[in-house]
Amino acid sequence: MDSLSWLIKLSVLTVLPLSVFSELRAKGSPHGVIQVKSGAKSIGMTPLPSAEPLILWCQAVKMELNKKPPVKLKDAVFRSALHHEYRPKLVLNNTMANLTLPNVPVTEAGIWSCELVTDEGNTTGFIDVYLRPIIFSRHAIRVEPQGTSQFQFDGAGVTIFQGQDAVLTCPVFGHPKPNIHWRIFGSDQALRNSGHYKMNTTSGELTIKNVTYADENVYVCIATNVHNDGSKKAYELQLERKLRVKSPMAWVLPLLIIIAILVSLVVTITVCEWRKRRREQKLIILEPEDE
User: Over 70: is that where the pLDDT of 143 sits?
Assistant: First the structure.
């Protein structure tokens, strides 16, 4: 029997009607959540672990006369969004697969599967494991929490020459995938795609074309997602990026200063050498001749 034909989402508590081909269905956790602490960020090659254990469960049920008696399980396995395999405990006389995972990496957020094996057939269900938007980067970046704000951060500034294109990144991760928009600090108006501003909906990057001094400002990335758990609560993260604009000739003044310092050093050394030689010559002249 091809069990893939009878997949259901465990996030929906209502079990599908009886199928003429299979009597087994899966039911279980409406959803899971990877909890993170306030101000949490995942930077580097080791993903941030969850602040609390992730708990999931599922059962195989048989549809008979509008009843859903659980079926004994021979085996069960949970697979994460990254296809990592986790073995649950079989409890309640082997009728329930129960999984408790401490320190779950945030990268495991996504759609999990629960694969159940019984004497009466196999069935598979799916669970959404949610994660609110967090700062996430495999590479070292400077991001600091903003005072006591829970999920507001100051990111590293970006310096660009006038006339160039500036690219501001917003390295965030969550499940569902966060919706990202940008605004200028102090304004409630979201920036829109235009000839000057370009938003990449996949990466969340903001590109400012042909920057001028008028573009020098603080830009705020706002990332939000909503968990399908009935609460309709929007989880939000804000990341501020400072854009600095320099003149293409800004390198001239530092170069002139360096040249002036070098010239000053050469002159000083030359004068010192000249004075030293004059003193030596005077000493030779003043020395008495041998009789």
Answer: yes
Considering 75-84, 245-254, 261-270, the range whose residues carry the highest mean pLDDT is 75-84
* DSSP-derived secondary structure for 78-147: EE-TT--EEPPEEETTTTEEEEEESS-BGGG-EEEEEEEEETTEEEEEEEEEEEEEEEEESS---EEE-T
Q: What are the C-alpha distances in Å from 67 to residues 24, 25, 28, 148, 249?
A: 12, 12, 16, 52, 79
Q: Does a structural domain hold residue 266?
A: yes
Residues 64 and 158 in one domain: no
Other CB atoms within a 10 A radius of the CB of residue 273 amount to 10
How many domains does the chain fold into? Answer: 3
Residue 54 lies in a domain: yes
**Same domain assignment for residues 205 and 114:** no
At 10 the pLDDT is 35
Does residue 210 sit within a domain? yes
CA angle (195, 200, 203) in 5-degree steps:
160
Question: Residue ranges of the alpha helices (H) in 138-251?
Answer: none
Of 24, 21, 48, 20, nearest in space to 36 by CA: 48
Q: What is the DSSP letter of 73?
A: P
Phi-psi region of 127 (alpha: psi -120 to 50; beta: other; left: phi over 0): beta
Cis peptide before 49 (omega within 30 of 0): no
Give the rounded percent of residues in the chain with a pLDDT score beyond 90: 61
Range of the domain at 121: 3-130
CATH number assigned to the domain comprising residue 119: 2.60.40.10
